[in-house]
Amino acid sequence: MDTILYGIEHKVRDGIRLTRDEGLALFKSDDLAWLGYLANIARKRISGDYVYFNVNRHINLTNVCEARCKFCAFGCDGDSAQAYTMTKEKALSLAKQSAQDPDLRELHIVSGLHPEWPFEFYLDVVRSLKAELPHIHLKAFTAVEICYFAKISGLTIEEVIKALIAAGMDSMPGGGAEILSDRVREQLCPKKATASQWLAIARTAHQLGIKSNASMLYGHIETMEERIDHLLALRDLQDETGGFQTFICFPFHPANTELESKIMRTSVWDDLRTMAISRLMLDNFKNIKAYWIMLTLPVAQLALGFGANDIDGTVSEEKIVHAAGANSSRSLSKDTLIGAIRQAGRVPVERDSLYNIIKVL
Ligand code: V47
Description:
The chain is an alpha/beta fold. It has helices spanning 3-14, 20-28, 32-47, 88-98, 119-132, 143-153, 157-167, 182-188, 195-207, 224-241, 268-281, 292-295, 297-303, 334-343; strands at residues 50-54, 56-59, 106-109, 137-140, 171-172, 211-218, 244-251, 287-289, 310-313, 347-351, 357-360. A 4-stranded mixed β-sheet has the order 9-1-10-11, with helices on one face. It has a 4-stranded parallel β-sheet with strand order 5-6-7-8, covered by helices on one side. Helix 5 runs parallel beside helix 7, helix 6 (143-153) crosses helix 9 (195-207) and helix 9 (195-207) runs parallel beside helix 10.
């Protein structure tokens, strides 16, 4: 074994932080089993044997989007045949329908950047959902949407977040981070929040007491250096605020996107090593999520042996990655998730959106 890899193994066993060069050396390693072995050591020390899931529903208010990122198959123009917009009443009725399940605890709300809707519309939706379903946690709006709300309303980021908190937003999802590199963003998503804006918005949310998630969209045009720098930017911010709850790896799904003819779907090999290396670099994140919707359930199950300790939720009606060819189900029952976690030799734990334990199963 190379000296650098030997040193990494010792550092992981001793719980010592890895450097950028060590992260890059991990991406050069072809020993997937060894990466899993190391990630397992870190996962066990940081978060034990519990694997978390929740009962949640996704609501995507619209797919009409001004940003039109090259990696996205969900967003479209307003005059496209696939375009849809939801009224406040429709969002409420979907939420109430799902809330008939007494286990439902979270609404996950992520949408396109609609060119005509005012910020007041989003506030009204959040206010109404909170008034009708006060016991449901609203995990709503990525940093990219918050940035857009500031642009369309003329408010500062802080004012936007404060207004959303007053309306009933409880936490923020981790999307929109993609790769925190100006080079990548200029090529793939030049019309939305920059890397520094994404980080600044997460920082402001954390300072205002709002927890948020972080993510990385990988397997497109990014380099391994950019993946590591992305993880380090998140690790630095987490050192500063402690406000990230979980980190999610999103493998790029190329179908129906502008990149479809140029880029292949990531390999399971890459999915597992990226999960493991994320766990190893993000030593200050308690939770690393294997989002079964994007990975498929069998790969999410395997990812539990590569550093993950969270499998997301039951997810009703996923739309974003299914538009890009995901072949997972759009929703899974609680029992299926529990069974999958048990098969992987771990302890299933139903959680709320802030990672409080509801039940150890
Ligand atoms: O920001 C878009 C990604 C994200 C594609 O915080 C794609 O718990 C793969 O925010 N292939 C939105 N990924 C989803 C999101 C989310 C989902 C689940 C849990 C949480 C959480 C957050 O989906 C986007 C983008 O990074 N995405 N298109 C694609 N073709």
